[in-house]
Specification:
Subcellular location (chain A): Cell inner membrane; Cell membrane
CATH superfamily of one domain in chain B: P-loop containing nucleotide triphosphate hydrolases
Shape of chain B: globular
Radius of gyration of chain B: 18 Å
Number of helices of chain B: 9
Oligomer: heterodimer
Shape of chain A: flat
Structural class of chain B: alpha/beta
GO cellular component, one term (chain A): ATP-binding cassette (ABC) transporter complex
Largest sheet of chain A: none
Order of helices and strands of chain B: EEEHEEHEHHHEHEHEEHH
Strand order of the largest sheet of chain B: 6-7-8-3-9-10
CATH superfamily of chain A: MetI-like
Family (chain A): Belongs to the binding-protein-dependent transport system permease family. HisMQ subfamily.
Helix content of chain B: 25-40%
Number of strands of chain B: 10
Membrane topology (chain A): Multi-pass membrane protein
Order of helices and strands of chain A: HHHHHHHHHH
Radius of gyration of chain A: 26 Å
Main location (chain A): membrane
């Protein structure tokens, strides 16, 4: 009954190969057309020479790029200490909102208010209010550092979003899992820790990856309260050289980090979809 | 004194009465099979006994002690009553071994090392010796269901409840799971089982109860209930079920 595989491709395989090549030819042709159109048409715009000079100036790019890269280290640093704090705080808020005990009612209220407030206020406003407001209480060095309070603003805002994602993850674990764990005599807390949370966290990894990518970009908002990170550094160069190319350089640096991260998040998401069928 | 005693148990979901005054007595070492159409209340009875569903009225006695008292700490009761579900409900992020060890470790405070010899022996007895380190999605339905039974047994329960545990299995896998139940019966386990496997109920049960609309319409030893049912409803159900 099994077909002899050495007999060559089947009719359907031949047809599909043919179709595949046809798709590739069409895609290649249309891509080439679009790219050629861009290369030919954009420089025909009346302001192109000026734009090229002030945004895509190779000389400026080469001169400023190393310094921008240097400044980007500050972004990475702020990101590196904020991200773990966000993960922990976000999880705690999610758990606080899902508690049942009447004694913890204040905690539930707090959790709900926290997410409402920090998701409702623009990040930049939170950064301003906390970044300028708290040191304004008369704190002395090092406690008046914008790094501390700026990071806190990011941590609070992002924890609110991350907490909601964790909660959706907790809801996504089928209730029969809880029933099975409870029926074995586990307490509610043990059920959460050993059975529900591990599955919930796994379910939301792709979504949380997207939050990380967003955070990486929003670190730049701290430039408004002091730290000379990449965006601020690019601004300094812009003033110095009267040229916008450093902003393009900064954008390139961000993309170098965010594009692989985005691809990876998409890959995780697609993998999860496949596993769930 | 009987091991398990249900007296006039009433369970409602909203305005739907799922258990409408269930009376049931299970003696030590007995196997009781609950039969009846889907929605008759078989599963709900089991979930109520395990305190997964609070009951509206009546009482449930385990060794003569009322375990359905509102406000009673359910954990200690559940640790004494094992339940196996239709859909296995293994924890997908743990190996078969960890699935089984979780409750004894957390609830009884035992260590892995203490548990291992005894659990290994159970896996072996149930033909799962080479499956201990597999994850649930690497096991067949029959294997998963046997792991679920081992998981419940590892708490050394006094009563085991089985909720249509073969309904989600391919026909050729049903036998291996039912064999495990026969083994447990020989060891003297007290068991209550909701099932559609009439042949098995006739062969293995000490008592069969036919449920309809949340009531036990008729109960008796399998020979009597299957061969000489007294109620019309039982006769009609069996005529359809055994067709």
């Amino acid at each position: 009954m099994t077909r002899n595989r050495t007999a060559g491709p089947t009719r359907r395989e031949l047809f599909e190969t043919q179709q595949r090549w046809r798709s590739i030819r069409i895609a290649a042709t249309s891509t080439v057309l679009v790219v050629v159109a861009l290369i030919v048409l954009v420089p025909l715009a009346p302001g192109w020479a000026k734009v090229q000079q002030s945004f895509f100036n190779g000389e400026v790019l080469v001169k400023t790029f190393p310094k921008l890269l240097e400044a980007f280290k500050i972004n990475v640093m702020i990101f590196a200490w904020s991200a773990p704090a966000i993960a922990v705080l976000g999880l705690l808020i999610a758990l606080a909102r899902d508690t049942k005990s009447p004694a913890l009612f204040p905690l539930r209220i707090f959790g709900a208010a926290f997410t409402d407030i920090f998701r409702g206020v623009p990040v930049i406003l939170t950064v301003y209010l906390i970044g300028f407001g708290i040191p304004g209480l008369g704190l002395t060095r090092p406690w008046n550092s914008p790094y501390i309070w700026g990071s806190l603003a990011l941590i609070l805002t992002y924890s609110a979003y991350v907490a909601e994602i964790f909660r959706s993850g907790i809801d996504s674990v089928h209730h029969s899992q809880r029933a099975a764990a409870l029926s074995l005599g586990l307490t509610e807390g043990q059920v959460m820790r050993d059975v529900v949370l591990p599955q919930a966290v796994r379910n939301v990894v792709p979504s949380q990856m997207n939050m990380l990518i967003a955070l990486q970009k929003d670190v730049s908002l701290l430039s408004f309260i002091g730290p000379v990170e990449i965006f601020r550094q690019a601004g300094v160069f812009k003033s110095l050289l009267a040229n916008f190319t450093p902003y393009v350089g900064a954008a390139i640096i961000f993309l170098i980090v965010t594009i692989p991260a985005t691809r990876y998040a998409d890959h995780l998401m697609a993998k999860q979809m496949r596993e769930r069928r | 004194m009987s091991k398990l005693n249900l007296r006039n148990v009433v369970k409602r979901f909203g305005d739907r009465t799922v258990c409408d005054g269930i009376d049931l007595t299970v003696d030590e070492g007995q196997m009781v099979c609950l039969i009846g159409a889907s929605g008759a209340g078989k599963s709900t009875v089991l979930r109520c006994i395990n305190l997964l569903e609070p009951i509206e009225d009546g009482e449930i006695l385990l060794d003569g002690v009322d375990i359905s008292v509102p406000g009673l700490d359910p954990q200690s009761v559940r640790a004494r009553i094992g339940i196996v579900f239709q859909s296995f409900n293994l924890f997908p992020h743990m190996t078969a071994l960890d699935n089984v060890m979780l409750a004894p470790r957390r609830v009884r405070g035992r260590t892995r090392a203490e548990l291992l010899p005894q659990i290994e022996e159970m896996f072996e007895r149930f033909g799962l010796a080479d499956r201990m380190l597999n994850y649930p999605d690497q096991l067949s339905g029959g294997q998963q269901q046997r792991v679920a039974i081992v998981r419940a047994l590892a708490m050394q329960p006094e009563v085991m409840l089985f909720d249509e545990i073969t309904s989600a299995l391919d026909p050729q896998l049903v036998g291996e799971v039912l064999d495990v139940l026969l083994m447990l019966k020989q060891q003297g386990m007290t068991m209550v089982m909701a099932t559609h496997e009439m042949g098995f109920a006739r062969q293995a049960a000490d008592k069969v109860c036919f449920l309809q609309n949340g009531r036990i319409v008729e109960e008796g030893p399998p020979e009597q209930l299957f061969d000489h049912p007294r109620q019309d409803a039982t006769r009609q159900f069996l005529a359809r079920a055994l067709k």
